[in-house]
Amino acid sequence: MSRSVVLVDAVRTPFGKAGGMYAGTRADDLMVRAIRGLLDRNPKVERSAIDDVAIAAATQTGDQGMNIGRSATLLAGLPNTVPGYSIDRWCAGALTAVTTIAGAIAFGSNDIAIAGGVEHMGNHPMGELMDPNPRYLAEKIVEQDALAMGATAERLHDRFPTITKERADKYALNSQIKTTKAYEAGLIQRDLIPMAARSAELGWTIATVDEAPRPTTTMEGLAGLKTPFRPAGRVTAGNSSGLNDGATAALLASEDKAIELGLTIKARLVSYAFAGVEPEVMGFGPVPSTIKALKQSGLTIDDIGLFEINEAFAVQVLAFLEHFGIADDDVRVNPFGGAIAVGHPLASSGVRLMLNLARSFEDHPEVRYGLTTMCIGLGMGGSVIWENPHFNGQVK
Amino acid sequence: MTTEIKLPEGAPEEVVTQALVRDIDLSAFGSKGTMALITLDNSLDHNRPNTFGPQSLLALAAAITEATSRKPAAIAITGKPFIFAAGADLSALSFISNREQSLAIGKLGHDVFRRLGESSIPTFAFINGLALGGGLEVGLHCNYRTLASTAFTALPEVFLGLVPGWGGATLLPKLIGPERAVQVIMLNALNNNTMMKAKDAYALGVVDAVFEPSDFLERSIAFAAGVLNGTTTIERKDYSQDPAWESALATGKAASLKKYGGAEIASPMKALELIAAAKTNTLGAGFDAEDAALADLTMSDPLRASLYAFNVIQKKRKKVEGAPKPALARKVSKVGVVGAGLMASQLALLLLRNLKCPIVMTDIDQERADKGVAWVKNELAKLVEKKRMSAESAARLSLLISGSADQNVYAGCDFIIEAIFEELSLKQGLFKKLEAIISPECVLATNTSSLSVERMSEGLKNPERVVGFHFFNPVAVMPLLEVARTSKTDDATTATAIAVGKELKKTMIICKDAPGFVVNRLLTRFMGEITDAVDEGTSPEVADNAMRSIGFPMSPFQLLDLVGPGVALHVSQTLNANLGERYRISPTMAAMVKEGVRNFYIKNEDGSVGANPAAIALIHKGDTPSTAEQVRSRALTALAVEARMMLDEGVVSTPAEIDLCMLMGAGWPMHLGGILPYLDREGISETACGQRFHPKGSASLP
């Protein structure tokens, strides 16, 4: 028994920089706003008809705790009858929320449900309350590098010597440029839910755009940045995603339900897979997970016409592209830029990839399949393949 | 515009509400340009709401200037979390020493707020939380208002002895019409300062839209964008020709007269004048009239007394004067109520609803005990019916109440209150019997109104656990609780009693065990002078109306009817026996009790209220009638003398406690400050006792 699962819609809050515009805002309030914004955009969906709410957060304490899935559901004003739960797969939290909900829909337990994620890295710095088992190092289960994401990125450079710092910087610059252009064309704002944010010193404001993008980035500027993870390294703040605050929410449904309710269908789920790699090179994770997802769907990489790859680090994207023989500046990849520019609030990012892909599908009816993929700390990758509902069967 | 206003000397430093300006890009909301959003924030949490003193007003003025200079498409104003603004900073008001200062503060408020109404740029108030008085008035000056669905709003000025004088009395009638304005400004304020829920404020037209708090600001800005781009239109009505002006004003006046026993009190009368003038006058003229009215009121003793009373009520509600450390209180998890009559049942219900612990009642037979329990359960059912309690809560509470004829059910109680017949020997016997059943720590409380608590504790093994716990009728409504300590009552007992009182949400005073405690002693002395005057030959009409103009909520004989001549006679007999001859026993009242005449006033067939001929016929007629002035003078003098004696005897330690008792236990009005500020300002304290109760300026003009 399996039913077709579709992405009805997806939204996000503007992403902030840790310590920036959301410094006075709670993580759960970000999540609540994303959920309410999503439901506002889909008035045909009865709130009581939501079968479940899966919300991811990488740190599930404080304002991201209390079972954030249920808590955000109640705070968002959904009826008590709507359940909710929390998901954690670090960076792939929201992506996993989507695949888990999709599984429930495909199985027939849910008809329509919300999947999303939130991370307030200002309130919850990476590694907060982390207590790695001493066995990790004592028994050499992982090397020290595996526990610091920047160090894993350096290790990826070590493994793929052809991926130089210059290539990484070039990629990063391109990400900033693509984001700037997308903003200028109003392509990103379409899926942002304005978010009230308060600063005790400055008063209330409304966040309407991402805080992190740096449109003035140059190669020279990037070249001069420090490499904080090792001396003479290659990974810098400029070719990595930053520390960010934000929330995302997606509405998923069985295709039958979406048609019955007259909902939009922005993407149709084809397959998904997760795979593990050595934790020291976690950035390589998307390669095996994508191979797995392709295999499940009977597709090849050549069938994928659009890619949304999370830019945790430029090197990690480049390793993926190099593996599959795709050019660093291939226009099919991250056409609106990526996390290096807009930011990566860990567990929320998966849905951002999907909402971008859904927009690209609209613009590219000649493309039939698209991929969303991301790397995951402690050595994993996650990949979801989607079919374009607007596909017209004609090659451009 | 005034650029500098100094706080009056002695006034506490102003907690300044900052006005912070930020730009909001409206393009995300489907409109052009930016909105300059002003946030009001005094940098403290919601326990200290935003208020407007002179510095805060100047900060807002600067923010409006700054906002305007940015040439935005709209200017909006909102608050800090949970709070919009709670109005004028009243702390400085008591220190204003001349009319010019007062006028200047009133005018400053107008000068600043009206810029929001007169701005050529559309203005919005996003009322995200509590908005009272001047807080709501800022919003009324704006062109449009949104309100959070959980926020309470009110114009409480008339409750405090002021008028909505920063635009409210003029703007609101023009905005929502005379009937609704009278509802908000007069009826709500006079009805114990009732605040509007969001749906009420919306229905009355005070605000244009209500949004849920979770994304209130975002939706409010979206609303504003809709107004700006023309997709949302808000209609305003011209009420200048509305036929309801006269009837609305009459309704307001009637409510005020009723509240103050027929007296025309300055603040509500001035508020009515301002509302009436709003029918036709310009905003400017209205604001000028508000300034004048505010200055007049501020420079009056009644307002100073009101502010004093307000502060006393606020402070003493939180902290009971002379209370032992709360940590000394023992846990109360089972309560006994002795008696199952109406009073006992009311107490049981009150204790049950608030303590939510097992309550056992007893009476002389099972049938009576059952009746008391049934009454309590029926009251719970009524609450469920009125949707004031959930069926689940009622079910929970119903299981906790039980009745018995066997006093052994009191075993295990932590707190027992008796409400049996007012007869000392009965109560003494009861406590002795209970001691054999209960633990040595169980508090024995008595709801006696005039008997000696000390004597009830005599002969007990543990007299230190006995305490007076005196409620006022109806016990669920009247906020005061007199906690009376005997010479032996220990701190743990007092602390436990106070803790129970807090659970019951009562305002408490701790007094020495003395006949009549505070309220009944003063009221009985006061009433005694009136009945004496009548017994001496003064016409009841003259005697009963002698103090109408003061503004007591009811006349002495109306009060007598409420209490009942039986209870009143009993109390006066007890006080006569214990305090002496100045408490006389009225032959008229004795005759009324003897003949079973229950009321002095009765409703005539046509619905009007008149003297009861049966009562008139029983009046003992002396031949030394007094004039109204003489009646008034002797009654007020008696109050002053008795209050001074109570302080000298240490019944309570401060005049403020006496005032608190009269405010909360007798419902005496705030403009009298309870009573002592009034006696001071009328010179009665000095004439009768040779000294004031309060230093000049603390509850009166300096």
Automatic annotation (TrEMBL), chain A:
PROSITE patterns, sorted: THIOLASE_2, THIOLASE_3
EC main group: transferase
GO molecular function, one term: acetyl-CoA C-acyltransferase activity
Listed GO CC annotations: cytoplasm
InterPro entries xref list: Thiolase, Thiolase-like, Thiolase-like_sf_Thiolase, Thiolase_AS, Thiolase_C, Thiolase_CS, Thiolase_N
Residues in Thiolase N-terminal domain copies: 5-256
Keyword Acyltransferase set for record: yes
Residue ranges constituting the Thiolase C-terminal domain according to the UniProt record: 264-387
The keyword Acyltransferase appears for this protein: yes
Cited Gene3D superfamilies: 3.40.47.10
Gene Ontology process terms (BP): fatty acid beta-oxidation; phenylacetate catabolic process
Keywords from the UniProt entry: Acyltransferase, Transferase
CDD domains from the UniProt entry: thiolase (cd00751)
Catalytic activity, EC: 2.3.1.16
Protein family (similarity comment): Belongs to the thiolase-like superfamily. Thiolase family.
Protein name: acetyl-CoA C-acyltransferase
Automatic annotation (TrEMBL), chain B:
Pathway: Lipid metabolism; fatty acid beta-oxidation
Gene Ontology biological process terms in this record: fatty acid beta-oxidation
Keywords, comma-separated and alphabetical: Fatty acid metabolism, Lipid metabolism, Lyase, Multifunctional enzyme, NAD, Oxidoreductase
InterPro entries assigned to the protein according to its UniProt record, in alphabetical order: 3-OHacyl-CoA_DH_NAD-bd (IPR006176), 3HC_DH_C (IPR006108), 6-PGluconate_DH-like_C_sf (IPR008927), 6PGD_dom2 (IPR013328), ClpP/crotonase-like_dom_sf (IPR029045), Enoyl-CoA_hydra/iso (IPR001753), FA_oxidation_alpha_subunit (IPR050136), NAD(P)-bd_dom_sf (IPR036291)
Domain 3-hydroxyacyl-CoA dehydrogenase NAD binding, chain residue ranges per copy: 334-513
GO molecular function annotation: enoyl-CoA hydratase activity; long-chain (3S)-3-hydroxyacyl-CoA dehydrogenase (NAD+) activity; NAD+ binding
One Pfam family per UniProt: 3HCDH_N
Domain 3-hydroxyacyl-CoA dehydrogenase C-terminal: 516-596
Entry keyword Lyase: yes
Family, per entry: In the central section; belongs to the 3-hydroxyacyl-CoA dehydrogenase family.
Protein name: Unannotated protein
Organism: freshwater metagenome
